Amino acid sequence: MPSPKRDFPKKFNTYYFSPNSMSDSFPFTVKECGYCSERKFVLGEKNNYNEYLLLYSLDGTVRYTKDKRTFYVQPNSVITTACNTTLTFTRVSKEWKYYYFIIGGSHAKRFYNLVRTHDNIILCNPFANVLDHFMDLYYILTESTEPYNDVWKYIHSSMLIHNIFTSLYDLAFNISTIKEMTPAQENNINAALKYISLNYKDELSIETISNQVGFSKYYFCKIFKKQMGVTIHQYVNEFRINKAKELLAYSKLSINSIASQVGFKTTLTFLRAFERSVHMTPSEYRDYY
């Protein structure tokens, strides 16, 4: 099944919405939104404790910092976090595109607490409906030219935010299980993610990664799967495939060269992994994008 074609906005832009008596009566309201491509994105300096960020990272790799903690965000990840402190996103890869919404409303805190995780990052399937909800919400708020009144927009935008939270809850990790993990375990997971992001071009065995963070192979595989929702092997493969997507879209390198540059041992292994993940061949992906 080929990747679904989505019509993204033709221009990058940011929009701000002033609250009013009508907006305050809805479960969710949007105070700010954008479809952007920035080298650096900073939030929290003008926001308050009752506002929350929903950000869908479309492509590229970005470094996310909050409360002096740093995480690496991969494509098709959603960041859900409170805006009660400064949030800094710094682009690591050549490109980074994302949707974001600053939301409030009577239900915002309650639903945010249902999906929050230690790092505030939820990995999504690009074929799932989370991205479609983000795109529909942005369209309703910024591009719809239909003669609908404000009530229609408030009702539908509130419904879509509810749908986003519902989908994220379905995709999220087992929150109670994750909260049982010790800080040492969580720090070692982040150390592993950073090591993978810096060494994905090299041979990355499970033994190599677990040795880097000081855990046994079997124990580390268990806690990695528990927190990330995928195995180490699956994560490394997806990371390499996302890097390959960047090269396919922005370079003229051959398929063989790209396979080698992103760490696959053979082109055949790369082709099989890419098609299994993206549901199209690398050549088809390059032609499509």
From TrEMBL:
Pfam families given in the database record: HTH_18
Positions of the HTH araC/xylS-type domain: 190-288
Transmembrane segments: none
Source superkingdom: Bacteria
Entry keywords, A to Z: DNA-binding
Listed InterPro entries: HTH_AraC
Name recorded for this polypeptide: AraC family transcriptional regulator
Higher taxonomy: Bacteria, Bacillati, Bacillota, Clostridia, Lachnospirales
